[in-house]
Amino acid sequence: MNKFDKKWLFFLLFAAFATAYSGTITREYHETHEFDGEKVTVETVNGKIFIETWQQDAVDVYAEIEVRSTSKSEAREFMDDVEIIVRRRGDDLDIRVEKPHDKSSGIWDWFSGDKPNLTVNFSIKVPEQMDIEASSVNGAIDVLGIEGRAFLSTTNGKILAEEIAGSVEAHTTNGSIFVDIRTADLKDDVDLNTVNGSIKLALEENVKADIDISTVNGSINTDFPLEVHGKWGPKNVSGEINGGGAHIELETVNGTVSLMQR
Q1: Does residue 14 belong to any structural domain of this protein?
Q2: pTM metric for this prediction
Q3: What pLDDT, on a 0 to 100 scale, did the predictor assign at position 239?
Q4: Which of 41, 49, 159, 180 could form a disulfide with 133 if both were Cys (CB 3.0 to 4.6 A apart)?
């Protein structure tokens, strides 16, 4: 392909993106649900999830919903069929997005904007002791102050969990992970895993834990008395902190791993 052809291809793609999603509709959802169960599950596809705690036996659900399409009328028609579903199942409360089934899936439909684009960002408040499970595909996950167990997963996005007093499982593919655990009494394991991104875990100085850390392309830094094996290529750390305890596994392929003292 010569330079002239490349310029025209770039122009056509730019024009397609410029005309795509020219119609945008937004709305908000906000409801509070009394809940004295054990676990809250939140699912979205395109969007961020933020979860914090509050001093009430209820779950507060706020969502920002945005639909982009080729025209406002098409975006509005799609938006009319988008629902935020909050459903209790025993001791669990499930929060998810229900959207119209996509009728077209061709790549040109995506370039031209014929396929509406839906983004749903959640901001949720839960009781401190609640277990949580949060998952997205394209979006960051941010959690603050949870004392129960946290299961966090996304594909394209970073994961941030601060002031945590319970266990954490966090998995992403393209994104960094930062977890801050404010208790030395770890009752469950901690598992942090990414492919393309760094991992940082902050622990109390007197925590008791068994440690396994590995990276392929990156370095390992630790504030604790642990020996790093490997100088070039894959690197790993295995050992005990303060006699051992809960199992902590930190693993990335492309990125640095840091185990820090709070």
Answers
A1: no
A2: 0.86
A3: 93
A4: 41
